[in-house]
Design brief:
With 370 residues, this protein is of the alpha/beta class. It has a domain of 151 residues: Rossmann fold (3-Layer(aba) Sandwich). 52% of the residues lie in helices and 12% in strands. The chain has 16 helices and 8 strands. The strands form 2 sheets. It has a 4-stranded parallel sheet, with helices on both faces. Helix 3 links the parallel strand 1 and strand 2. Helix 1 crosses helix 9. The longest helix has 23 residues. The two termini are 35 Å apart.
């Protein structure tokens, strides 16, 4: 039986695991965004690793970035400048926001990875956007084949599709455990399950997820009747600080709307279509991030989550200087107000000086839900 603590302990040791795999000859490729298709990496023989930063100061990154760059991009650059990701063979960026797009240039200038690729993600779901995304998928495939000196056959793409579809289904089943009262998984436990899933070899991930689905945690009465919270933001990386803040304050995070949560695993790749077209369709049409033109779809998705998980309050966490989510937040707050769901918007940063006042605001919000 796999205990939820296993996933946290494994994630904490992810860099050790990465270096061990590298020493064994495994190719590891970093990703900065969930709009970059993992199937292509797996089919080419590489292991995808979601790159994340740490809480705390970023003195090295601050030397290269202007003051109005979000702390997420700062912390990721800081981690690489420190050597945390010295086991990666390369990193793939997306233009999911201006900060990420421009930080790609800094990585090219100041880091010595053998392979850096820029994936030009469209910001809409039109027919022209699909053609653009498919072009980027084909371009990435060719780029990986050239760098790795391999050819990616269609049958390997189909194997990778099936592998990741199973992971998505298992994660969906685990999230369903949180619809109960009390939920069988806390928000912190779910965070580390996802964090483990996007940084470890998929074969190990699937084995652990299958075991947890087969034997989920037992019901814990201490979480019954707590205010049920949905957390919405871009990503929660490295530590479950934002989620643990809610649960330490007496709430329980029963679901999330994040790129390192539901938006990572919602939606399957069709197995009946040509692989590259099916991959492009799934990634472009998955639950949209705030950088796309389809905010109304994400708002509708949040309302569906609120109903399915019996959510009583929503916390919008926005990283300071994250323009895409800060512009999105007022519209989402109005949508939630219209359906009678209490919500609060909280700006945060990876710098720890921000955390004490945030805790006070979270505590006050949880108390208001009682």
């Amino acid at each position: 039986m796999v205990e939820p603590l296993f996933f946290k302990e494994s994630f904490v040791k992810r860099h050790e695991k990465g270096r061990k795999l590298k020493a064994e000859g495994k190719l590891l490729m970093g990703l900065t965004c969930t709009y970059i298709p993992e199937e292509l990496l797996i089919a080419s023989g590489a292991m995808p690793v979601k790159v994340s930063g740490s809480l705390g100061g970023t003195p090295r990154a601050d030397s290269y970035l202007p003051v109005n760059i979000c702390s997420t991009m700062r912390s990721i650059l800081e981690a690489s400048l420190k050597g945390d990701y010295d086991y990666l063979d390369g990193v793939i960026f997306s233009n999911s926001c201006d900060n990420m797009g421009r930080c790609f240039d800094r990585w090219k200038l100041h880091l010595s990875y053998s392979y850096l690729h820029f994936f030009n993600t469209p910001h809409s779901k039109t027919s022209n956007a699909f053609k653009r995304y498919l072009y980027e998928v084909k371009k990435l495939k060719k780029s990986l084949e050239t760098f790795l000196k391999v050819e990616v056959p269609e049958d390997e793409l189909r194997k990778a599709i099936n592998l990741l579809n199973e992971e998505r289904l298992l994660l969906s089943k685990l999230y369903e455990l949180r619809t109960e009262d009390p939920p069988l998984l806390t928000g912190v436990e779910a965070f580390y399950i996802l964090a483990y899933s996007i940084t470890y070899p998929k074969e190990e991930v699937l084995k652990s997820l299958r075991e947890l689905v087969k034997e989920p945690p037992k019901l814990r009465s201490e979480f019954k009747d707590r205010p049920r919270v949905l957390v919405s933001c871009s990503i929660i990386d490295n530590e479950a600080k934002l989620i643990s803040m809610v649960e330490d304050s007496g709430g329980i995070v029963v679901v999330d709307d994040t790129c390192t949560g539901t938006r990572y695993f919602e939606g399957l790749v069709k197995t009946s279509s040509p692989p590259l077209e099916a991959i492009a369709e799934r990634y472009l049409n998955k639950v949209p991030c705030a950088f796309t033109q389809h905010g109304e779809e994400r708002f509708a998705y949040l309302k569906e989550l609120i109903k399915r998980y019996h959510v009583e309050g929503v916390i919008l966490y926005c990283v300071k200087f994250c323009d895409t989510y800060l512009f999105d937040a007022p519209m989402l707050m109005e949508e939630l107000k219209d359906i009678g769901i209490p919500a609060t918007l909280i700006e945060w940063s990876h710098v720890e000086a921000w955390w004490a006042p945030l805790k006070t605001r979270v505590e006050a919000f949880i108390e208001s839900l009682r």
